[in-house]
Design brief:
Layout: H1 2-30, H2 33-41, H3 48-58, H4 74-77, H5 80-84, H6 102-137, H7 142-156, H8 159-173, H9 189-218, H10 222-229, H11 234-245, H12 247-254, H13 258-263, H14 266-272, H15 277-287, H16 290-318
Helix pairs in contact: 1-16, 2-3, 6-9, 7-9, 8-9, 10-11, 12-16, 14-15, 15-16
Length: 325
């Protein structure tokens, strides 16, 4: 187990380095430090002196990968890539272009993101599994046919439709919840009802069909025939045998959601005015703030790797046959 964890951590280093390198290269292929300076200075026509001064103040006056004017090892260390990207491995996120601490913003904004993402995840998982189990229980019936058709229809609709439709019907017409906004503390619940509901409903189609396919694959296994031969009811077969044996593929699909729990949903937070990390990332992309973009991409990659490791560890809990080597 220890050897496995050490090996996975060592594998994570080149992966994170590659993600950093690709993010850095793509960002500066599209933008230049001069473009970033013009956006931050808020003027279309700014002097070259103002641009140069902004670049010096924010550390963008150095070459990207190789500093030919420096000597020795500083040719590689006195570069934008080394100073702006490699510092992330020490979890030093630095400052945004507006001077605010990125780490402090992450600590503040992760709570609204978690407040939206965690209820959406747990409620959604329960709803998706229940929907799939119900369709499998009533398989080869009209109820299953109608349910599958409904799932296909739901997954064919754009996620933006659920957002706009939910805001219009539940927020504007019925006044069940505020259309957008957020409040800290206990008052946050009324602002979370609508985005959580939209998040759950928008995922029923895709997730319901995925879990239904998993359960249908398990239902033809030999252990299911043995359970039925012993006289167990169909409900007990589903919940006591099929559901536990489908736990590994379910856990594999769940790991993809882990970074989203922390980093938030870009669409949901932006449309519902939630001041989380998702909207923070969108604003940074629009402002071409490389400091925030690289920090959020690195953090998402790190959380995804952690999620993969935790998923492998969870396999040993749900299936004693799995051994990590």
């Amino acid at each position: 187990m220890i050897a496995y964890l050490i090996r996975r951590l060592l594998y994570a280093v080149p992966i994170l380095l590659g993600v950093n390198l690709i993010t850095f290269a793509l960002f500066f292929m599209v933008n230049t430090p001069d473009d970033m300076a013009r956006i931050q200075l808020g003027a279309k026509h700014v002097t070259a002196e103002a641009i140069a001064r902004w670049k010096v103040q924010h550390g963008y006056d150095k070459p990207l990968f190789y500093n030919a004017q420096a000597e020795g090892g500083e040719r590689l260390t006195q570069t934008l890539f080394t100073q702006k990207s490699l510092s992330l491995f020490a979890l030093e996120f630095g400052q945004a272009d507006d001077g605010r601490s990125i780490a402090r913003e992450i600590q503040t904004r992760m709570w609204p993101s978690l407040a939206v993402a965690m209820p959406t995840f747990f409620i959604g998982l329960a709803v998706y599994l229940a929907t799939a189990l119900m369709l499998v229980f009533f398989r080869r019936s009209r109820l299953e046919l109608a349910g599958v058709v409904m799932l296909v229809v739901l997954m064919s609709i754009s996620g933006l439709f659920y957002v706009i439709g939910g805001q219009f019907v539940l927020g504007k017409l019925w006044h069940w919840a505020p259309i957008s906004g957020y409040a800290p503390g206990l008052e946050a619940w009324k602002f979370l009802v609508l985005p959580v509901l939209v998040g759950v409903v928008s995922g029923i189609g895709e997730s319901g069909r995925f879990y239904r396919a998993l359960f249908l694959e398990e239902i033809h296994q030999d252990y299911v025939r043995t359970a039925r031969a012993k006289g167990l009811s169909e409900a007990r077969v589903l919940f006591n045998h099929i559901l536990p044996n489908a736990a590994i593929p379910i856990l594999t699909g769940v790991v993809v959601v882990l970074p989203r729990l922390f980093l938030g949903s870009l669409v949901i937070e932006s449309f519902f005015g939630v001041p989380g990390l998702g909207s923070y990332t969108i604003d940074a992309i629009q402002a071409q703030d490389f400091g925030i973009v690289r920090a959020m991409v690195f953090l998402g990659s790190l959380l995804y790797i952690v999620g993969l490791v935790l998923t492998d560890l969870s396999y040993t809990l749900v299936d004693p046959r799995v051994r990590l080597q």
